[in-house]
């Protein structure tokens, strides 16, 4: 069976994928075959040192769907490590980052994300957002010490654009401020000696975030007060109804001052 027929069968019958690929070593054979066919040249996905070229995770791979199916299959740790080595050595960065997440190789992932130079990789539900202060420090250090140049991307109509939002110190600092809050972010940036690299845009954004936080705090204090008043009014209404019912009647006109008939 050639790779075209195999890929077609998997797309039609994905539930049989795991049972077909036994032993697990067979998955590695198919993965190696998939990343070797209809793939972009390695010189466009990696530099001379084997690091990702900017935006090379956006390139088209003929069998990307098959590759992703293979790497997402349950497998032992050794097999997964071999898969991540295959993805890295061939420059298939989407699969590489997925496996980094699965194998908890977060430091390695952040290093290569900075080379890929796409803020979109750290945004959204599946983005690589630092989870600890140490990871934020690592990311800031990587951005400070890694020189990446935006790679122009070719659109379907043949025109070139600047591509995704680049990973710059200011963009990462803004992400930090949104995730951690402007004041904590500023303290961390000061600790890392990076405040001089930020522009007025960062300051204005932090001011807006502070206003938003203040309004949210005020709203948080106001809502319990409204609920408390509403609960108190309900208790008064119930008490009055019980008082009137104890005399064997409930006034048809409702409470004094109400508009109820």
From TrEMBL:
Residues 13-207 form the HPS5 TPR domain. InterPro entries: TPR_HPS5. It holds the Pfam family TPR_HPS5. Coiled coil: none annotated. One of its GO terms (cellular component) is cytoplasm. It comes from Moschus moschiferus. This is HPS5 biosis of lysosomal organelles complex 2 subunit 2. GO terms for biological process: developmental pigmentation.
